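To close the section, here is one more complete example, presented without commentary so you can practise reading it yourself. The ligand is adenosine-5'-diphosphate.
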Amino acid sequence: MKLTLVQGDITEQPVDAIVNAANSSLLGGGGVDGAIHRKGGPEILAECRALRASRYGGGLPVGEAVATTAGLLPARWVIHTVGPVFSRSEDRSHLLASCYRESLKVADALGAATVAFPAVSTGVYRWPMDDAARISVTTVLRSESNVREARFVLFDFAAYEIFDRVLREFG
Ligand code: ADP
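Output:
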């Protein structure tokens, strides 16, 4: 698997699947989630509602992932995953790593060859960017997957620089 970095907006990525930093409700939120539903149109939310009414009545658990189609977005699928809220008193790294592993498993099941990831948990969920970059990059590098390209899409240059440094260190 090739790991690439771009600075930009994940909703504009022409890849097979983009990953959404969703919340457990699957019913929309701010940040990446808000942008995906805003630009992707109502079809994505309708599929999320159907998931809540069936398989995920209690919400999507933290660290798990599930796919919907991508509505009006250039990608074919959205893979929704729920990152952990950062905690100083409890190590939740395994849950953040799980988001990436489980998203890649869903991508494999879909047959997606190119997948774009945001920096899950680094927004509203407050995970420090350098630590999140280390966990995300090492988890993806160690994952067994048929995905050809895993692309990290960083919204601002500061985040891009941090991921770039981590990728040079571990990649
Ligand atoms: P979480 O709740 O998991 O922290 P957020 O969506 O609040 O998720 O933030 C995750 C990261 O995504 C943050 O670093 C934020 O700056 C970034 N981000 C926000 N909007 C976009 C976007 N359209 N494309 C790519 N990254 C984005």
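Once you have examined the tokens, check your reading against these statements. The pocket of adenosine-5'-diphosphate is lined by residues 9-11, 21, 30-33, 35, 83, 118-125, 153, 155, 159 (CB under 6 Å). The helical segments are 31-40, 42-53, 93-110, 129-142, 157-170.
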